[in-house]
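Before relying on records like the one below, remember that each one covers exactly one chain. Contacts with other chains, cofactors or solvent are not represented anywhere in the record.
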Amino acid sequence: MRMASIPGNQKATHSENSQGKKSQHAEEAIFYMNCRAAYLSVLKSSLENIKSKEQLSLVLQQAGRNPSQKTINKYWTSQTTSLNFDDFCAILKKEKPATKNELLEAFGKIDTDKAGYIFHDELYKILTTRGDKMTWEEVTTITKQADFNCSGKLDYNKFCELYLSTREQCCKAARDRLEVDPRLRQQQFGNQTENSSEGIPVPVSKASPRISRKSDHKLANGDSRAPSRPSSAQSGKASSSTTVTVGASSSSRNTKLIIEPDTMKEWQHVQSKGCFYLEEDGEIISHKYRLHLPQRSAVCITIKPLNIPQAEGKSCSWLSVDTALFILKENETQENLQLVSFTELQHKEMFGWRGELGSGVYWLLPFTTGCRLRKVKTQIPGEAKLVWRDEDGELALTKEFRAALLDIFETIDLDGNGLLSLEEYNFFELRTSGEKCDQEAWAVCKENFEMKKNELTRQGFMDLNLMEANDRDGDPWDLWVTLLSLGYNKALEMTEACPFVIDICAERCKARMKAVSLEAGGSQLSRAVCRSVVNKGEAKVLDGSENIIIHTYKSGSRISSVIENKSENKVIIHVNNEKSKNCLNSRGLTVFAVEVAPKSMMVSQHVMPLKEQEEWIYSCVHSLVC
């Protein structure tokens, strides 16, 4: 009845406003899609930064822009070292593509007679002497296009049409690559590899009793930023907000994990070391392990960063890196792995799990969120010296390099027996050179370097590196390749790696654990991370979209969120963390968007405190873009 009393013009205005919002929202979604398509045409991931003027020019061209050198210099100054995806989107907002009218107007200033064409000689003179000067060869490439040339003249109306169609073809090709290539369609998070375009399938299940339909619209409406991504939180689309406040220093001590109670003193113990390594594109790889239990037993499994004895007294940034282990049961094949549990209990820097496991084969997949293990630009005062020559002119390793090599030896000595087996040494070789050492080459090592029980000693490892320096007559280039691949910077600080140690105690049997590979976690780890968050976390349905659920789980000092898409269509979810305080997230971005395939789920982000001694607030708004 009340609707009938509303004047017609007010109804029309309301309808027009609604249509206007939908139109604006659709434009923003298309803009963001084009941004991603252009960016991923040049770079491997939206986590990877633009590192040069040339890359910036290339991604802008992929987005249909034709930047001049002046435009490039405006955004890449002498102080610029890199630009991220947010920066790129902001640039595209400012640098609008030229329209046909603008192009024709520019040519019209040259064609003062309004004849509709320009003589080639005149075009040569202008393009090679004004603005961003072109070469004669570049201008000739234009003038050879027969479709818009005749009798030494350029038909600039046809040229503009060709330019605009070529630009659109370039943008369309980028979008097509994004749609076809599953590696490009998905985003990277922490040390998870990009998943297939199918995403992680959602199993059919009953509605979770933990699902909440509450949504805090105040957070969404309070976003005053002019975002470079679609600001769906402002558009009134379906959204959900989550806020978690964690007290100072409580995050790493809120769950007491008792590692060695009296009842465990007689349990059988096995240990292995490993390491997370940060790749150039931001991906994280690590050792993976196979665990065999001969019989059912109570088990305690822990993982923590490795405190290397030689590094004591130094700044060990990796000790603050979060670690976790996902325990998967092997059934008939290695591909058919079932999530058993993960190390959710935390005491200081140690994460653990305690329970009972049946006999059989298990896989242990190490995991870190990437919040604290990431690419960071730091000023290095000077390059450390690796070798020197003594009074007799003989090469020797510097004290600083020897200390770094001892740290490396401690890390790659996985079983901790003070010696390197061929298997342990090959993990080192695969990481530093990409090749393995065979039995014949190992026999040569045995002849030239100190070994015990067919395993390389610390001194033998030192001498091996000294020989490498001698082979290049003191040139440290190969030595630096080794160090950089192992996460060291030019000041001999380990900043892009995190060694860790895994301990397993079993009550009724002797467990066997073996490192089997050094690689990215892959789809098995991605699936395990998502499933753990969905199983343990709180679920919220996006208000107004019953098929989109945001799962949030707090475990110790980290918070993880997973987006579950139960619909038949892919969705893009806008994620806004601007109201969070004292937080680091695995994306490295405050505002971003995530594409989730139909009937699948994927990680939105992991969040940790920037300063654990202070209170931190995780406040995130997830909103549906399309």
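The radius of gyration is 29 Å.
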